[in-house]
Design a protein that fits this description.
It is built from ten helices and nine strands. It has 279 residues and is an alpha/beta fold. Strand 6 (170-173), helix 7 (177-181) and strand 7 (198-199) form a beta-alpha-beta unit. It is globular.
Amino acid sequence: MMHRTLIDVATLQANLDSPAWCVFDVRHQLADVGYGRRAYAEGHLPGAVFLHCDDDLSGPKRGGNGRHPLPDPHTFAQKLAQCGVSANSQVVVYDDSQGMIAGRLWWMLRWLGHEAVAVLDGGIQAWQVAGGSLTAEVPMPNPGDFCARKCGGTVDAVDVLKNLGSAELCLVDARSPDRFRGENETLDPVGGHIPGARNRFFRDNLRADGSFKPAELLREEWRAFLGAAMPEQVVHQCGSGVSGCVNLLAMEHAGLTGSRLYPGSWSEWCADPGRPVAR
């Protein structure tokens, strides 16, 4: 059985030793970029390979392309192959930040055409609550044959700008409500949001324990939030193309497929003073 959105702890435990399964630890903190490596060294799921949000899941920053620009797809595909991923691999991704970073890698694999990828529901916390063991041993995976089969599902700043005010594009901002309003902005030099964007905080997809709400409830909430907009008209964004992936994951889990990502997001948008800002 292929797992495409979320996976529970019991299913992962039952398949953890399978050579066809690849597990990634992507723990990260925006304000402490060394945190993930330290946490991984202290203890991670057996067999899990660490990838860093800035160094592995992002490409070079040029000043105007956002805080987490996408890496070159073929270079990233080679990195995944070195980590053991093959065309037939079931990939599982986890973090400890309510899926914020795990969602990014989940989306990136889909961006490259790999459908068999799922986020561990509840993260490493759920694993530990269920009695799952941790290890400090660093795995040495055999290289896989993974390669990029496509690179789709994105829009850029030009697409967003030319569709401002158009019903053809429904822009959804995953940041916290205060940052969306332009308040308490500590990560980007300009506060506010892209004109016309709607705000759906990525944590609104989660229950109190950090696991995702049931698919049926997510579908009901997202349909009410989107109104007449169809999933294929939805473009997700956030501060830098990371937490917006959680909203995209939630929609996919709810069966609302076809939405896209603006990877540059607010950090790219606000880097050009010629682009309009709403507050």
